Amino acid sequence: MFEEKQPAVSVDKLTWMYEQMVKIRYYEDQMVEAYTEGKSPVFNIGEGPVPGEMHLATGQEPAAAGMMVHLTKDDTVTAPHRPHHHAIAKGVDLKKMTAEIFGKESGLGKGKGGHMHLFDPEVKFSCGGIVAAGIPHAVGAAMANKMKGKDWVAVAFIGEGAANAGAFHESLNLAALWNLPLIVVVEDNSYGISVPKTASTSVESNDLRASAYGVAGAYVKDNDPIAMYKASEEAVNRARNGQGPTIIEIQTYRFLGHFQGDPELYRDKDEVPGLRARDPIMKLRQQLADAEKMSEQELEEIETRAKKEVDEAYQFARDSDYPKPEAALNDVFTS
Amino acid sequence: METAKKRMLTGNKAMAEAIAQEMENDQNVFVLGEDIGKYGGIFGSTQGLIEKFGPERVLDTPISETAFIGAAIGSAAEGMRPIAELMFVDFFGVCMDQIYNHMAKIPYMSGGNVRLPMVLMTAVGGGYSDAAQHSQTLYATFAHMPGMKVVAPSTPYDLKGMMTSAIRDDNPVVFMFHKSLQGLGWMDQLDYAVGHVPEESYTVPLDKANVMREGKDVTIVGIQMMTHYAMEAAERLAADGIEAEVIDLRSLAPIDKDTIIKSVKKTHRLVVVDEDYRSYGMTAEVAAIVSEEALYELEAPIKRLAIPDVPIPYSHVLEDFVLPGPDKIVEAVKQMMDEA
Fold first, then answer.
1. B253 and B191, same domain (yes or no)
2. Which residue range(s) make up the domain with A247?
3. Which tens digits make up the pLDDT trace of B208-254?
4. HSE-up of A89 (CA within 13 Å, CB side)?
5. Could you say which of A120, A128, A174 has the minimum Cβ distance to residue B68?
């Protein structure tokens, strides 16, 4: 049990994690607003400044912050269709990311990708809209790291639904076989869209599947950022030291629907208030105040800084121009 | 005349030589796939590579096409130049997500910020009773979808030169090699599976068709085996006084419209021959290009020869019936000339 033997995590690391989590939460809150623009009174998915599907990670911040605190820009991260928390914690250019989500020319993909397809090679971040498909890409990055003789690692974030896809099995077998510096983080937010984990998954938690591949497994319960920190630290060290892959499953919370506009008829009305009562950001804030004796003023400074960065990113996105229509014909080939 | 012994190679050795030379030139080039190590590739495409470069750069994979093609994508994004082999193109069904949703789209979706310099090589074609799951070419399936260069060389010279170009290209290239043109000892021994291949490294462009034979009466467009069948047909037609111009398409995407149009403007007749399914295929694409850009040059309706929209059957009498060949091409051309 992680909570029983939690070693001290430096206040710097905790502060970094707290700032990332606040930034992510505020970013997603702003996105709820931006996404809603132009979609009322009648919800039309194609309308407003942010059209299309929108999968937000509100509540899932600990997985991203607890892992990314151990990574550098040389480590690779692949993320799924719900990628904002990973992108923010990995240090993706927030202005360009937001501009991409607004479909602007200044976006990461010049408006060709959108929120599920964010690519920032500067910090080795990518994501995609096909469940489980990013795992093999992380395997490839891990292969490249090993071939280049670097101690860089590759982390594939997936949802618990992706652990039932063939790509999960193929990738873990390959990574274990070749002893690659790969970590798969399974974020169990309880639902694959509407289907609960109990109706989709034959084991209680996916770290149990690690034994099928002869790799290490770790389980983080109750969305605990510090337990996530610890499990990630062990996994990253293992990977950097050439000791092979790890599967970490974290029990996390999805405060919002699968996507914005999800009527959420499949879950009890009391469920989300219950989850919000165990908000990991509030818990970490409490811990920083109590255990680390951080003052209210210090905490507010962190929060203000994070929010300012997000506000500036949204402003940049709104102020940016749309691409020229005929730019749709560019970039099919890169040279 | 300088005919100091021309160096002759089979198709597979020409391909493997290109890969070996690029692996020597560039440490980032590596090969992965099923049975590509000690076996040398089921169709000989990687023959001799593991002996030269070792298992660190010539990686036998488990039967996990999604994982290893996806890994090729992931490593290419990190600056490596992987060559992944999909043993038979027919196996695309188990890994098309990685090929089409990722390999072909990531460069575009990233606004050109992510480059994927990789080659996906794969064996195509039938004619040896391997039935419906091991005999397709699927040329059009791949060429239909944007984001991939799709090439299908027909001669040992082009197999080497186009493989070298494919490896050096910064975009994903689907490199289709025809099993019957590899010159393997355990298949039909075909003269055109052996040809002159210079030892030194050279490139052949990935976007240019090749006029294999000049003629004034009719243009026959083919690719891989169909190009060679068109050449056989052209020789027989010549005996009857019909001069066919034969175009080896070589590249399906991008397609070299100019060479096709130029030829049709000269011959005013067009026959397109394909070892892929007829509907929505290469024959339709070439016919559409000519209809759009040179319709009034035509003196007869275009003729198309292709697999008649059935899976490839096993029994050789059945397979022979559905595959275009020299007889059918001769017949189509003669019919066309008579109609005129």
1. no
2. 15-259+276-317
3. 999 999 999 999 999 999 999 999 999 999 999 999 999 999 999 99
4. 35
5. A174
